Amino acid sequence: MKPRIKNPSALVPAIRHFKLLAALLWLSLSCFAQARTITLTLNDCDLFATISSQAAAHGWAGTHVHAHFSDSKIVNASGQEAILLRFKLDRIPKDQRIVRAELLLPLAPKVSSRNARLHLWRLQQPWGVGINHRFRSLRPEAAMWTEPGARGIGSDRASRPSVQMRLTNESGEIALNVLSDVELWHSGSAKEYGWMLCTEDLQEIVGFQAPLGVPDQWKLRITYEP
Amino acid sequence: MNDNSALTSVIAPGSTAADVSDTHRLLVVGTRDGKLLVYPLKQDGSVEDAPAQTIDLPRSAPNQNAQCRVVSVLFHPRQPLLYVWQNFASDATHQAQEQLPHLVIYRCSEQRLQLASALVQGPDFGYNRQMGMLALDSRQERLFIPSGIDGPKKVPVSLFHYSLTAQGLPAQAAGAPRPEPQGTRAFFYFVGNSIVPGPKSTVLLGALSGPCFVNLEESQVLRQILVPDTTAIVEVASHPQRPLYYFSAIGSGAFLAMEHVDGILTQLPRTVTLQGVEFKSRPVVMTPRNQVAVGSPRAVVVIDLDKEGWPSGKARMHKVDNLENEAAAPVYSEKFNRLYVPVK
User: What CA–CA distance (Å, rounded) separates B279 from B275?
Assistant: First the structure.
């Protein structure tokens, strides 16, 4: 049984009002839905290494603790140690524009030098299986860094660092703005070989928590839109 | 496993360790009361119907009544030898430890074992480990033995090995009263059972949160954290043909595979986490099947590998009644293509 409307003309202004509200709601929702943020973690990395002049044969060199012992409980970025990582960016649709990209990293408490200056460099050479302080890969064939520790400026790494950050906190999380690098890779303007974290001073150390101990705390947060 | 008959349960109450020899058609199980149970195998690898030969391990006179347990058993792949490591079932004084022949060697002949030698390890050896395993390097030049952290001299050594003669017996230095094991620093994280010799004098050890890498030539040790759980012992196995190590995190269902170059770990591991599973043993690689088996409290978990040896993501539980609640791994015979599982 259909409900009966006594005076249909009285409903016309209410319907117009409803249409206007619906249009506004659709507009605001579509704007909101267009920008999307994803968080990649270490589980989304396909390459990772910690290299050191003190354990030159190793791609998981960790931190030098004693004369004969290194441990990956803490991994250092320093003047003789570096962390290399590459995130897979294939979760970002090709037709999207990157509007924000942040690399979020977990500091190890009470390790880093006061006011140490952390450098993030874009790598310019492929690296892979067997990577260590001297070699960028050992399989399928051996290939050396231009300078040990991937320190060759303009060859192993870019001509200038993507980020330089003076450390103000001793623990917690640090955020590096990596928008320009991610844009560069996503647009195809540069091949993605990932980043290197280090310092340029032998006295300056920045310590991070074990990557595989806290894989969800090594993050790349990216916002994109059409 | 595709074929359930490949899983062979062997009744061996109190089992703590096992090994199988294809060549000598023998399965040996060590027990927590210091005995060896010796099972002759038929041509197809099934266990003979006759009762197992039982052998009491030798002890020195002052320790005749002490309770000892078999920690590890290992067949030499080429020589007719079985190595056995025993230790006291509970804490013992250093003097008592010095007198106990921890390493006992048997000669295999006609599917039976005969005592060849029993070696004490001397005053400088670190004895304070109840667990561990015997392992041979790929050239059979070194026999790694379960060993402790501190000797009486408080030297922080924890990985010992004997140099072996071409006949597979511990070598004796000129003028020395007996063969002496040599020690290498491995530090206190080495608390797992696994000792996995790799290429070029490298060894990977089961340890807390991840393995310890040891380079014997350079006396270099690195600990690699692989799992978030800081209390989990991570046990190790290596693929016999591919440059891959496999890891089982004890007490969890985390199974990992990681590539290496000359024994040095490289790049990120690939992880399979099995819900509701608690691993109890190190992984056992079954190369012809392209699978890895890991012991758990009530089942053997079989993990499929892909063509390159990486975990494919498929795994199955094979329920085994009356499994011992020990960390002993099942043992696999490549020739017979059987996985032997000691049960109560």
Answer: 11
pLDDT digits (tens, 9 = 90+) for A112-127: 888 899 999 999 999 9
What's the CA dihedral at B12, B16, B21, B25 to 10 degrees? -10
Residue of B218, B223, B259 with shortest CB distance to A71: B223
The 10s digit of each residue's pLDDT in B155-185 is 555 788 999 999 999 999 998 888 988 887 7
Give the pairing of strands B338-343 and B7-11: parallel
Nearest C-alpha neighbor of B57 from the set B28, B80, B77, B23: B28
At B267-314, the pLDDT tens digits run 999 999 999 999 999 999 999 999 999 999 889 999 999 999 999 999
Rounded to a whole number of angstroms, the distance from the CA of B196 to the nearest CA of chain A is 18
CA distance, residue B171 to nearest chain A CA (Å) = 27
Contacts of B315 (CB under 8 A, 6+ apart): B255, B272, B274, B301, B302, B303, B304
For residue A132, the chain B residue with the least C-alpha distance is B266
pLDDT (average), residues B252-267: 97
Tokens of B87: 């230790």
pLDDT tens for residues B43-60?
999 999 988 999 999 988
Phi/psi zone of residue B247: left (φ > 0), alpha (ψ -120 to 50 degrees), beta?
beta
Residue B288 phi, psi dihedral angles, 5° rounding? -60, -30
Which among B152, B144, B151, B267 is positioned nearest to B206, based on CA atoms?
Answer: B144
> Which one of B264, B271, B273 would you mutate to disrupt binding with A, by most A Cβ within 10 Å of its Cβ?
B264
What pLDDT band is residue A17 in, cutting at 50, 70 and 90? Answer: low
Tokens linked to A91? 């979760």
Say if A111 is an interface residue toward chain B (CB within 8 Å): no
Sort out which chain A residues have CB atoms less than 8 A from B187's CB and list them.
Answer: 69
Question: Quick one: residue B267, left, alpha or beta (phi over 0 = left, psi -120 to 50 = alpha)?
Answer: left
Contacts 24+ apart (CB under 8 A), B212-216: B212/B186, B212/B187, B213/A58, B213/B263, B213/B264, B213/B265, B214/B159, B214/B184, B214/B185, B214/B186, B215/B263, B216/B161, B216/B184
Q: Which of A179-188, B139-148, B284-293 has the lowest mean pLDDT?
A: B139-148
Q: Which of A22-31, A149-158, B18-27, B33-42 has the lowest mean pLDDT?
A: A22-31
pTM of the model: 0.91
Write down the ipTM of this complex. 0.91
Name the residue among B273, B154, B131, B269 with its Cα closest to residue B206: B131
